Structures are given as structure tokens and as C-alpha cells.
Amino acid sequence: MCGRTRCTLGAADVPRACHRTGGPSQMIDIDRYRPSYNVGPGWNMPVVRRDVTSDGDGYAVHCMKWGLIPSFTKKNEKPDFFRMFNARSESVAEKASFRRLLPKNRCLVAVEGFFEWKKDGSKKQPYHIHFRDGRPLIFAALYDSWNNSEGETLYTFTILTTSSSSALKWLHDRMPVILGDKEATDAWLNGDPYDSLLKPYQHSDLVWYPVTSAMGKIGFDGPECIKEVQLKKEDKGTISKFFVKKEVKEQEDPEPEDACKPHEPVKKDLTESVKEEVDNEDKLDITPSPEVAADEDIKPSVAPAVDTAQKSKVKREFDDSIDEYQTIARTHESKRLEVASPAGKKAKSKNDGDNKQPTLLSFFGKK
Is the pTM of this model over 0.70? Predict the structure, then answer.
């Protein structure tokens, strides 16, 4: 509910803001008023009320403290201005503190805007609500007087609230009762039926924007109170999005195959690698030699007829071929590591043709 307002109007501007065209009958305790951008309960503010000492449409501008202290409060009790600085319009006719004030103790409060806080977990963000064209807002209010133990009379008031408009429900569920025109202010001051007056203000000329969180300090004052601030975008990243982002980055910037890094152990047996290479040759419709076809994993379309002695000879030749291939492979690996070093990278581009790894097909082709 409304607990902070901006009231920087001059005392002489208050009657005109409340649609009072004639001069006031009285200006009471107006010297206590201090304009402020950050007004809270306990502050002195000018209100417009009917002048009971005059006839007709007479009114008075009376400076009162915000925060109702009922007249039946004990004289020696310390006043608490935060206890009843607002009154719910839905129950105002039911509670003793307010019901007795409805016939003759109505008043108008003129402000240039009010503040409301949006709750977001443990954080609260204040917003400044005002009219788009800058004209003052007029709140419906009730006032009372109380005599303390020292014989001093204290005038206080409370601002009536209602359910929030459809446009402001996102911010808060309550808002002050705003009287939008002269007809409404006249009806309230004159004691007319109020059911149609105490409604949410639904017009689109009521606007808002976020302001500094320093508004939470009652002593914070000045134009900075109504300066619009840019809210930081909420970081909605989750741990799952973090891993997705990381995966995308790895795909966009893969590690080069020839990057200089420690050599990883060969996971496959060298014999299996040779067999895979022979299989690949077979898939390319290259007819393997009878010696290669003798391996049990390679099944040529026409199996050559050989005796046991010939099989042993082929096996020995195949084993010799494997030993020679392993020697060549180790030599090539040594050269690859040398090229991968910083000194060998430059020479690599010139000798690329000489450092190509031989395949099993080329090896047997040479023989």
C-alpha cells in the first residue's frame, strides 16, 4: 500500500490542484510544511478540508501529520504514525477508528506521485507512479484530532486505499483511492455517498518507472528520488545451459588434429589395424594378393587351393611383412612427433610429401 509519496507542491498550489477555484477560508499551521521528494508517515503535509466555521463551499488548507491518531487514544500514549497511515476503503464503514469520521472529517491530499515496491524474493524494487502529464494526484483521506497529555491538539490523517487497477496488479495488490476530476473531489468533500468513489483508478494516463532503491531510506531526498533507473537483466542461466554452451563452443572451435600434445597410446592392436586396412582395400574392389588373402579375417571370393607346406610358407611371409610394417610405422611415428614440435612445424609444409604414412596396400604393391 501507499507508504511513500512525492509532495513538492507549494502551499499556494494545493487548492488549485484540488479543484478549489476560490480562495481558502483559512491556512492553518502551513509553516510546518516542508516540500519533499520522499514523504513518509509522521511528516507534515497540507490537506484540503471543509471549513466548518464558514457557510457554503468554504474550505481550509490545513497542515497535518500523515498517520492517523484516533481522538480516543490515551493522552499519555506515544503516537504511532505508521499504525494507521492507510485505511482500507472496503472496511472503512465498519471500523470505529474510521466510521465516525466519514460524515464530516473527509479531506483531500495532493501529491505529485507515490512509490510502490515490487517484491522479488528477498529484493524489493521501488517504482514511481504518477500522471503522464505531470498533474498532481488527489487522494481521498480522513482526518482526526487528538489531545496529548500536555494539552496540545494534534491533527492527523490517513489515506484510503482500494484494490489495485488491472494495469498495476503486477506491482502490488493495493493502491490509493485517486479522485480523478472535480466532480469526484466535490462529492468526497461534501459528504456524498462514496461507494462509487472508492474504486481503483483504471485510466491509462497513470504511468510508472523504476527508481533507485535508496528510496527505502526515509532520509533520502531530492530529485534523485524520481530519476528513472535501468534495471539489470536477470541472469536466467542454469547449470544445464552452461554445459550446452560449452559443448557448442567445442564444436565451433575443434582442436586441430596436428596440435602439439602428448602422444596417446594406440588403443588398437597393430595386427587389427593391418586387418582393417586390408578390409578397406577389399571394399575398394582391389583384389588382394594370395598371401594377404590367406589371413583368416579376409575371405576372397575364390579360395586358392594350397597344401600345408604352402600355408606355412605364406604365414612366415605374412609375419615377416608384419614385422617390417611395424618398423616402418615406428619410424613414421618418430618423424610425426618431430614434425609436431615447434621447430618441425616449419619444415613440415616443405616435406609433407615425404612424410606421408605408408599404407599396407602401398607396402605390398612395392614388393
Answer: no
Chain position carrying cell 583384389: 287
Residue ranges with strand state E in the chain: 4-7, 26-28, 36-39, 44-50, 59-66, 86-88, 106-111, 113-120, 123-131, 137-147, 153-163, 174-176, 206-210
CA 324: distance to chain centroid?
68
Residue of 112, 100, 193, 184 lying closest to 144 (CA atoms): 100
Asked if residues 161 and 174 have their Cβ atoms less than 8 Å apart, the reply is yes
Residue 325 to residue 167: CA distance in whole angstroms: 81
pLDDT digit string, tens, across residues 57-70? 789 999 999 999 99
How far is Cα 294 from Cα 310, in angstroms, rounded to an integer? Answer: 11
CA distance 224 to 92: 35
Across-strand partners of 247?
Answer: none
Question: Is a pLDDT exceeding 70 seen at residue 117?
Answer: yes
pLDDT tens by residue, 199-235: 999 999 999 999 999 999 989 999 999 999 999 875 4
Cβ-contact 160, 197 below 8 angstroms: no
- The beta strands (E) that lie in 202-336 are given as 206-210
What's the rounded Cα separation, in Å, for the pair 134 and 119?
A: 26
